[in-house]
Amino acid sequence: MPITPELLDELLKECESPEDMFGNDGLLQQFTKAVVERALHGEMTHHLGYEKYAPAGQNSGNSRNGKSKKTIRGKRGQIEIEVPRDRDSSFEPRLVKKGQTRFDGFDDKIISMYARGMTCREIQAHLQEIYGVEVSPDLISTVTDGVIDEVRSWQSRPLDPVYPILYLDALQVKVKDQGRISNKAIYLAIGVNISGIKEVLGLWASENEGAKFWLSIITELKNRGVRDIFIACVDGLKGFPEAIETIYPKTQVQLCLVHLMRFSLAYVSFKDRKAVAADLKVIYRAATVEEAEQHLATFAEKWDTRYPSISKSWRANWAPVIPMFGFPDDIRRAVYPTNAIESLNMSLRKVIKTRASFPNDEAAFKLLYLALRNIAKKWTMPIPHWGQAMQAFSIIFAGRVPTLDGQSFTQFI
User: Fold this and answer.
1) Which residue has the higher pLDDT, 18 or 285?
2) If residue 36 lies in a helix (H) or strand (E), which one and from where to where?
3) pLDDT at 240 over 90
4) Quick one: angle between helices 137-145 and 120-131, nearest 10?
5) Distances from the Cα of 141 to the Cαs of 114, 136, 147, 259, 393, in angstroms?
6) Helices and strands in the chain, H and E counts
7) Taking the mean position of all CA atoms in its chain, how far away is CA 94?
8) Average of pLDDT values for 230-240?
9) Buried b / exposed e across 351-387, counting CB within 10 Å, b at 16+?
10) How many Cα atoms within 13 Å fall on the side-chain side of residue 331?
11) Cα(327)–Cα(340) distance, rounded to whole angstroms?
12) In angstroms, rounded to a whole number, what is the distance separating the alpha carbons of residues 384 and 211?
């Protein structure tokens, strides 16, 4: 039904300010209340089969029995409505169901704020200040806990058969365990699929890493459908090479330069940071191993007097670094999108830094999952140079790159 100008003029004739229209007791709230109550009375008429005061209702066995008050919270605040009742309590309204205290969409707003790192108390204060809605921290926890089933489903979802690149990263969080707070690592597996789109494959928590822990993760990825991984970029994770060799013996394990660069620059003064980063870039952008070793020696001569630990760490990790020099530039540029990985790390650390600790692993997973869900909305384009990288992959990993019709998958089944 169209809303006529005459109807709008009638509704707005008493409004003199924005508060009169959009305030807690403004026109919009009154209009919402009137429409909801009108609809509920319509539902009651349909349920009973006769209009209010109609003779057909006499001796019908059921009739209207007054009203009950209910406060409903929504995106624009909270309103108090009157819900009609019937004598035999068989009326089940559909618009505002029994036990419902929030309009559809209100929970989504709570989850959205929670996913951006706001605590339950901060969300409570924000809803009160902006919308005039009173909610308890327990209600917010209940709403966000509803995501746990979604997290479990996401964690066990089927994955693509082939991921040319796999990154493994870790975030440190504090988790309460049997009355004490301990540091735990939350590991993330980030895959790049054959279309060049990044995808977080899963989250896992552990206080101690090792071959057994990594074998369980790699086995889980295989059970979820992953048949092949070309290159796995990791941060010198203990036991990982042995675990992945057991499940994916053809996978090339490569030390992740993002982590090596992060460690190298951690204690560099701000005034030297740009120059040190530029000199390190010359090393990993070298065309050959010999050229890289020469640049590393030059770097040590220049910076060892100030930062001796940097060249030392590169030499200590040189064996897992040098495999990249066997790849052409097209693959190297695709394997090391440092901005993308660092951006993900920054976004996740931003949301977890507001928590002194988590009550359990599930609470940490819940927050990280919601944050990742927001971040993944931006992952719609292939990583840079992906087309050229796939051409190089098809030559170096001949027979392992899937075709569009999926025929090459048969060798992995």
Assistant:
1) 285
2) helix 27-48
3) no
4) 110
5) 10, 9, 10, 34, 46
6) 18, 7
7) 32
8) 81
9) bbeebeebeebbbbbbbbbbbbbebeeebeebbebbe
10) 23
11) 21
12) 33
Average pLDDT value for the chain:
80
Tell me the average pLDDT across 311-339. 83
φ, ψ for residue 161, nearest 5 deg:
-70, -30
Which residue intervals of 82-131 are DSSP H helices? 106-115, 120-131
Buried b (16+ CB within 10 A) or exposed e, 10-48: eeeeeeeeeeeeeeeebebbeebbeebbeebbebbeeeb
The DSSP secondary-structure symbol of 382 reads P
> Dihedrals φ, ψ of 202, to 5°?
175, 170
SS3 of residue 204 by DSSP: strand
- Cα angle vertex 217, ends 238, 345, to 5°? 70
Query: Phi and psi (nearest 5°) for 57?
Result: -85, -10
Q: Which candidate, 166, 199, 200, places its Cα nearest to that of 186? A: 200
Q: How many other β-carbons are positioned within 10 Å of the β-carbon of residue 212? A: 11
116 C-beta neighbours (distance < 10 Å), count? 16
